[in-house]
Each structure stands twice: as C-alpha cells, then as structure tokens.
Amino acid sequence: MKYHLVxxxxxxxxxxxxxxxxxxxxxxxxxxxxxxRFVLGLCLLCxxxxxxxxxxxxxxEVLFAAAGATGIAAYYLLENVAxxxxxxxxxxxxxxxxxxxxxLISAALGDRSSINIRFFCGFALAMTGLIVxxxxxIGEGDIVNFAGFDLFGDMLALTAALVWAIYSTLVxxxxxxxYETIVATKRTFVWGVAxxxxxxxxxxPHAPRPSVLLDGQNxxxxxxxxxxxxxxxxxxxxxxVKHLGATTTTTYIYLVPAITATASILILGEPLNAPIxxxxxxxxxxxxxxxxxxxxxxxxxCKTDRPVLG
Length: 310
Hints:
Layout: H1 2-24, H2 30-48, H3 60-85, H4 88-95, H5 98-108, H6 117-136, H7 151-176, H8 181-203, H9 210-213, H10 216-244, H11 246-250, H12 256-268, H13 274-295
Helix pairs in contact: 1-4, 1-10, 1-12, 2-3, 2-8, 2-10, 3-7, 3-8, 4-7, 4-12, 5-7, 6-13
C-alpha cells in the first residue's frame, strides 16, 4: 500500500508543476525558470548520488547529449513558452499524449509490438480529446487565438510531446546499456543544463533581480520545481517502479492531466466547462485504450520509464 502512495505522491507533484510554472511566469522568463530549476535539480542529484558515470563506449556521450538537448532543454523550453500562450490545463493534457508519439517512433524504428487497431483507435480518441480541450479554453490565451483555440500555445505543447517521445526513445537506448538510473539521469541533466545555459546567455542574458528570486512565492515555486519535482520525485518514482513494477506504476500516469486541470481551476482560476471535462475524459480514455495491450504482457519495462514531467 505504501508504494502505491509513493507513486500517487509523485504523480500529484508532477501534475502540479504546470501550475507552479505558470505562476512563476508572472515574474520570470521561461528560460530563467528552466535554468534555475535544473541547476537546482542537478545539484541535488549530485548530493544524492555523487558517483561519476564512466562511459562504456565513447559514443554513448552522444546519446546523453541528445537526451539532454531533447528531454531537458527543448521539451521544457517548449512547455514553458506554451504556458505563456495557453492554459496550464491545455498544456498538461496535450503533453500527456507523448506515449502515443513514443509508440509511433518506436514502430518507425522497427518495434511494432504496441501498434495495432486498438492503438490507432486510442490515438484517434486522444487526439480528438485534445481538440475538444482546446475548444474549451477559448479566450484564455494571452496572444494568439484562432477559431477560439489558443493555437500557438497548443501547437508548442504538441511539439513538446513529440520532443519528449524522441527523448524517451533515447532513454530506452541508454537503459539497454545498463547504466545506473540516477547516475545516467545526472549525466543527462548536465548536458541539458549546458544547452539551457548557452541558450539563456544568447537570448535572455539579463538575470532576474535578486528581489524577484527571493520573493516568497517565487522561491517556494522554484524549490518545488527543482528540489521536489526534478530531483526527489525521480527517486520516488524509481522506488515505486522497483516495488510495484513498471506496468502497475505507469497506470498512475493517466491521473496527471486530471490533477493539472483540477489544480489549474482551483489555483489559477482557469475555466471548467463541458468541453474541457469531455476532452479530458476522451484523452485519458484514449491513452488507456492505446496502452491496454501492453498491460497484458509480462512487465519488462525498464526502470527509467517515466511519464511526461511538468
């Protein structure tokens, strides 16, 4: 029972990260939120596991660099910028569709074990749900609206989901090489922070004022994102997977959009209407349907398997 609570705690934290980032965007730019969050997360991972990773092959560094560029730098930058233009609810629901894109990429690379009629039905249902959620967020974007959709923000979130799918494929290749999970993640964080730092210095070189960083609300949200969501929850997720198995633990992933929507409504005052409720239900049902086949197979998922993080 306690490991189910551990998994549930982790998912609740990740569901709230979209809201936390949205709050920080009032005072901080997407790039600086990203840089501060992952520098803090990397520091804590170094404390938790100071061991230095030794490459088994020199070419493995390319995999870690690519994982850092996609899963840390590109994904979170796209997500943060998407939150400027559209609601946290929309972003949370859209990026939750990433496992569908992961399956498609895996199929393109030769692994078609999860591609069948049920997958395509689930994919169609989930994509329709995303459109319905977009319709339910009419007028909530800050800049771009088209036919009532916060189109630009929604497209950025959809691109982020695709980028995370690429990252997941890279992580699977890294896991096959037998690297320890936390140490491998730390190496990925190093590359991610490096890419984020360079991007920040080029496009947003002016650091936030100390008074902004030391503001109570901003400080708590940064600590939440960096220390809890990016570092501690990776460990708790690993513990849950170890004791419950990847298949059982992954079931909790489908709660993330619902948690994000609930938190967005209660904390940010985002709208709750019939299209949002219907679209959310359709998306979760589509994800469950598309993944149902794998639940009947032997649990062989790697321990690095993770949901989309906020």
